[in-house]
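quick one, 98 residues, struct below
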Amino acid sequence: MKNQEPHESPEKPLHGKVLYRRISDQDSFRGEGVSLGGSELRFTGEQPLTKGEAAEVRIDAVKGLSPPLTAYIEVATCAQDGAQGYRIEGVVKGIQSH
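---
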């Protein structure tokens, strides 16, 4: 079976906190960054997101590695990840540094 996850460019590990929310909602949730590569963002979070919905993900700065970022994503997958909550993968539609 062919792997359907987009991995065309190398991923950069994210070792920082994230704060995410549905674009249509004001409530934010906490998470941990996993990786950022090409047009893909992966993170774990305390609340699920629905495939296809738009979300804003604020990524904390990693000292000496990257500034704080805000990514606007379309959720590609969201799956239960044991005690850690949910593993969320999104396609980046826009990104800005602060």
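The chain has no helices and seven strands.
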